[in-house]
Amino acid sequence: MQRLRVMRVLTRMNVGGPSMQVTTLQRHLDPARYDQRLYTGHVGDDEADYQALFAPDLPVHRIAGLGRRIGPGGDARAFAQLYAHMRRFRPHIVHTHTAKAGVLGRLAAVAAGVPVRVHTFHGHLLHGYFSPRATRVMVGVEAALARRTQRLVSVGARVRDDLLAAGIGDAVRYRVIGPGTVLPTLPDRAAARRELGLDGSGPVVAYVGRVTGIKRPDRFLAAARLVRATVPDAQFVVCGAGDRLTATRAAAADLGPAVRFTGWRADVHTVYAAADVVLLTSDNEGTPVCLIEAALAGRPCVATRVGSVHEVVVDARTGLLTDPAAEPLAAATVRLLQDEDLRARLGRQAADHAATQFGPSRLITGIDRLYAEIAVEHGWWPEHETVSAPV
């Protein structure tokens, strides 16, 4: 049986769910079955590099122009490089991740005659990113590309349903394969708080993620002020960076030392260990890895009811979901901070749910089965190889 050649294309390796998933697949899909190569652009100046922080040993082919910034010159260079690499590597499958890589990678794969294109939607750009006109253009592009893509992977059922409702792809092409991750052993809570420079006396609410518009850091600060009106010794940790970090720091000046900005940390599990509650305030999400990590750490989450968040946080069972506004988010956070028994129960149930639904084996097995299905369809593997290899 021949090894499948898989060319994986990601816009950039910034800290976030797509980079984590790609790294997991590159490291853990069976090398006896797959010859994988990863192609990615450069992270922006205001972003943390996932590879540098978490995967310095991961082999990566860097593609100039494939980063976040869009421009005809850089995009054309990235397309040309991807096309050239495809002609040399001759992949059976080009698997793209995130929007820009999905466009350039799939167009290059069509031009290079790659037999199979697969694209993963780690979320979508249908709400909260662009003007209505730009969104219509984006939907048209994605719909056209979906017709030339043999398999579409969604990280959550709600994300898939939103894309289908927008006319992007058809149900038969989609597979729902959620993220998968693990956390290192957590440090002692008191030690974690000392490491972060936190006062040990008050409860801690953590935010982990990009500090950018769609994540609504302004809403996080508004909720923090409301929480402190009822729980005056509450402290807040913001672990992350992004284009709104400077503005968010400035806006938090009135909160003083009650809000600590840590930037991205390679030991993000220390942040979860220090926290009592994890808060997510986004307008739009796919399946947020930060909520999975928080659950694995046994920390209940308060989050907005958007995207596939409800597939990670089961309302009133593993955390609390609210409408996307500061007042209900603050009220839910206060409820957890003031009820230790509820907080502990939801945390235990969150850990059990996350370990079952979002362990790395679920992601690895799901993609392995998908690739095997494709290989059998094209006669590259015999029929019996539709059964996934042990993980």
Automatic annotation (TrEMBL):
Domain Glycosyltransferase subfamily 4-like N-terminal: 16-180
Domain Glycosyl transferase family: 189-351
Domain of life from the UniProt record: Bacteria
InterPro entries hit by this protein: Glyco_trans_1, Glyco_trans_4-like_N
Pfam families: Glyco_trans_4_4, Glycos_transf_1
Swiss-Prot/TrEMBL keywords: Glycosyltransferase, Transferase
GO MF: glycosyltransferase activity
Protein name (database record): Glycosyltransferase involved in cell wall biosynthesis
Record organism: Dactylosporangium matsuzakiense
